[in-house]
Design goal:
This protein is an all-alpha fold and 147 residues long. The protein has 4 helices and no strands.
Length: 147
């Protein structure tokens, strides 16, 4: 699959997820009521889910905004630039922040520990990407100076 098609698909998937995150801000209480009919939830678990979701939603939307800008830069042919490195750094911090927000909530609703672990691991992966992109940008900048 070529890079342009992949970037466009990723851009639209990102927008779809952002829409879902935004909609859930309004539908979370209804979804939790529906879920509570299927599986019993303690009031403390419901509160933990609410706090974790509303705490994470803004962070996730902020990260998705940076993903949107990053993908637009890639589609414009601006790949190895400092702006992209800074956006990926911000995305990494968003992953870590979501992990930290979910950690205390996991004490009240244990399945949130999976979100904590997954987002912590994703933050680690994004850190590796940051280091690779930063090295690539430095090489490109050095090459631009020598030409």
């Amino acid at each position: 699959m070529n890079t342009e098609i992949s970037s466009k698909v990723t851009l639209w998937v990102n927008r779809g997820i952002a829409l879902a995150v935004g909609l859930m801000l309004f539908l979370l209480s209804w979804v939790l009521r529906l879920y509570s009919q299927w599986r019993s939830l303690e009031p403390s678990a419901q509160t933990a889910i609410f706090v974790a979701y509303y705490g994470c939603a803004g962070v996730v939307l902020f990260a998705q905004w940076h993903i949107e800008k990053l993908l637009k830069n890639i589609l414009a042919g601006e790949i190895f630039i400092r702006d992209n490195v800074l956006r990926i750094i911000r995305i990494r911090w968003c992953c870590i922040l979501v992990s930290l927000i979910c950690l205390p909530a996991a004490f009240y609703y244990l399945p949130l520990i999976f979100m904590t672990i997954i987002m912590g691991f994703l933050g680690l992966i994004v850190s590796v990407v940051v280091n690779v992109m930063d090295a690539a940008v430095k090489i490109r900048e050095e090459n631009d100076l020598t030409v």
